[in-house]
Amino acid sequence: MQFEWSYFFSLFSVADFWESCITVIELSALGWFIGMLLGFLLASAKLSTARWISVPASIYIWFFRSVPLLVLVVFTYNLPQMFPVTRDVLSNPFYSGLLALVVTEAAYMAEIHRGGLISVAKGQKEAGRALGVGLIGMQRLIVIPQAFRISLPTLVNEYITVVKLTSLVSVISLTELLTVGQRLYAQNFLVMETLSAVAVYYVMIVTVFGWLFHWLEQHLELSNRKPQTLDDAALVDLRTRLGSQPAQAPQPSARAGLAPALQLVNIQKRYGQHEVLKGIDLKVEAGQVISIIGPSGSGKTTLIRTVNSLETIDQGEIILFGEGYIHSGDNPNAPQIRRGVQRIGMVFQNFNLFPHRTILDNVTLAPRYHGRDRVVSEQRAYALLDKVGLLAHAHKYPHQLSGGQQQRVAIARALAMDPQIMLFDEPTSALDPELVGDVLKVIADLAKEGMTMLIVSHEMDFALSISDRVIFMENGIVQNDAAPHAILADQCGERVRKFMGLDSHSPSPHNVSKSRLAGEVG
Ligand code: ADP
Ligand code: MG
Fold it and tell me: Is Lipid biosynthesis given among the entry's keywords (predicted)?
């Protein structure tokens, strides 16, 4: 048997084929797009902690991933027999085909989205929460943009699958590519030639969309974006436009003599049977700098996280500037907690910058979310970036900065909300030693300006030099709470001095790295 080449080529000028190409594109694009939106809702539902939401979503996904599309197509097309009201829509093979495609694709795409959603690091949501961003804002600004970038390649691949699946709709006589081909070869029996042409049409559609999606992926790929460091001329220009003084922390002196900035009363916290905080009492006056030290696992991180509601407490109460703020049993989304969280800035060990946003956008995200004007937030952000020595990097992305620079951005980001208290959880422990100094200098400057701060740190020299009080925690309790001079004067017992690497005969801290090597510092 011979292949009729001239007939094969003539099929590319058949109007019916080109029209059915449009049908295939419309059907697949709509099926993919609606399926993607519904899939996202299903994925979010499946991830919900409420079982009445997650269980139905899981059942839907399980069921419709199991039913073959062909069965579903025939089923939806015949649905008007059972439900005559659906006749107007579903007797049209395009709509019944679309419905079947959407129903199946939503189930597939839900799993793709779920993969994206769970790969967004937990720290991202914590950073958002620490900035007072609510549940919907968190999804819109932080989670979805990152999850979408992760799932995009798989979603694109799914589009190609959808294009090919549209051929199944030929069983209900929708005039798509395969139907046109079948009609032709039923008349002339040139099956191979006709089906080869049909295949080429599909390949063309997939190729064109493949290019489009490739372009989109490249466009969204952050590592392809390489904004440059601003040069000196640009910096001078920016500073003249800002025209203002370098950003200052709000002065706490006005509050001196009033209620303490922070009061922890009998804070208890357990994870299962493990009692991590065993009744912590702590009073921090406005403008005080408190360093928290102690062995790994002693509860320092947990303590500091309870202060801005990243952890709930089982017992006790936290009072902020004399006002009730957190009580055991409170819902973390209670209005007084959300208001309080906005007055507290938090800096994490792993920076938790938002990787999909520029440095400037990282700093302006929270003020803009809370309704501050764009120009005002940007001016303030530039001033804060100047303060931490990173103005020249304002338009770069976090992945283009060193760890030390990222941590300084994280400090600027926390300061952008004009917090009255700053919390630091081992801000330098993820950094290479040569990068630690710049970060500590920024924190020391804040201390000089009178910012109230709680700093979990294992930089003993630093803790002794900038703190008003050093708190030593062990086994979930405050073992010691003393001023640096009292510790240096040997008034606080052997345990603290030993932990700090202080030789009992010499008044200066020595060899902190020794205790680090001993694995004692957490
Ligand atoms: P530190 O910061 O002083 O090293 P943490 O506050 O991180 O200590 O942890 C104190 C204790 O609580 C550790 O024993 C740790 O294993 C436990 N812990 C911390 N977070 C959790 C959690 N989410 N679930 C269970 N246990 C936890
Ligand atoms: Mg810790």
Answer: no
**Distance between CA atoms of residues 343 and 130, nearest Å:** 10
Predicted pLDDT of residue 518: 37
Q: Are 58 and 124 in contact (CB under 8 A)?
A: no
User: Is 428 close to ligand 1, i.e. is its CB under 6 Å away?
Assistant: no
CA distance 240 to 487: 47
Can you tell me the distance from the alpha carbon of 109 to that of 38, in angstroms, rounded to the nearest whole number?
8
Give the H or E element holding residue 93: helix 93-119
Residue 224 has pLDDT above 90, yes or no: no
CA–centroid distance, 425 to ligand 2, in Å, is 7
Q: How far apart are alpha carbons 426 and 351 in whole angstroms?
A: 10
Determine whether the shortest distance from the Cβ of 302 to ligand 1 is under 6 A: yes
The pair of structure tokens assigned to 62 is 């399980």
DSSP 431: S
Q: Give the separation between CA 80 and CA 114, rounded to whole angstroms.
A: 34
CB 345 within 8 A of CB 419: yes
Ligand 1 contact, 123 CB (< 6 A): no
Give the HSE-up count for residue 312: Cα atoms under 13 Å, Cβ half-sphere: 9
Write down the pLDDT at residue 433.
87
CB of 300 within 6 A of ligand 1: the answer is yes
Which string of DSSP letters, residue by residue, matches 332-393?
TT-HHHHHHHHTEEEE-TT----TTS-HHHHHHHHHHHTT--HHHHHHHHHHHHHHTT-GGG
Q: 478 alpha carbon to ligand 2 midpoint, in Å?
A: 15
Q: How far, in Å, is the centroid of ligand 2 from the Cα of 404?
A: 19
Please report, for residues 17, 189, 198, 200, the alpha-carbon distance to residue 4 in angstroms, rounded to integers and kept in the order given.
Answer: 18, 11, 15, 16
Reported as a pLDDT band with limits 50, 70 and 90, residue 170 is confident
User: β-strand 274-284 against 262-271: which pairing, if any?
Assistant: antiparallel
**Cα–Cα distance for residue pair 23/21, rounded to 1 Å:** 5
Q: What mean pLDDT is reported for the chain?
A: 90
Q: Is 298 in the pocket of ligand 1 (CB under 6 A)?
A: yes
Element (H, E) at 281: strand 274-284
Rg of the chain over all Cα atoms, to the nearest angstrom: 31
Which atom of ligand 1 approaches the CA of 305 most closely?
A: 6
Which tens digits make up the pLDDT trace of 383-421?
999 999 999 999 999 999 999 999 999 999 999 999 999
Give the domains, in start order, of the chain with CATH numbers: 5-220 (1.10.3720.10), 228-250+353-418 (3.40.50.300), 286-311+327-343+421-522 (3.40.50.300)
Which atom of ligand 1 is nearest the CA belonging to 311? 23
Calculate mean pLDDT across residues 185-214: 94
Q: Which residues surround ligand 2, an ion (CB under 5 A)?
A: 301
Where does residue 505 rank: exposed (0-12), middle (13-18), buried (19+ CB within 10 A)?
exposed
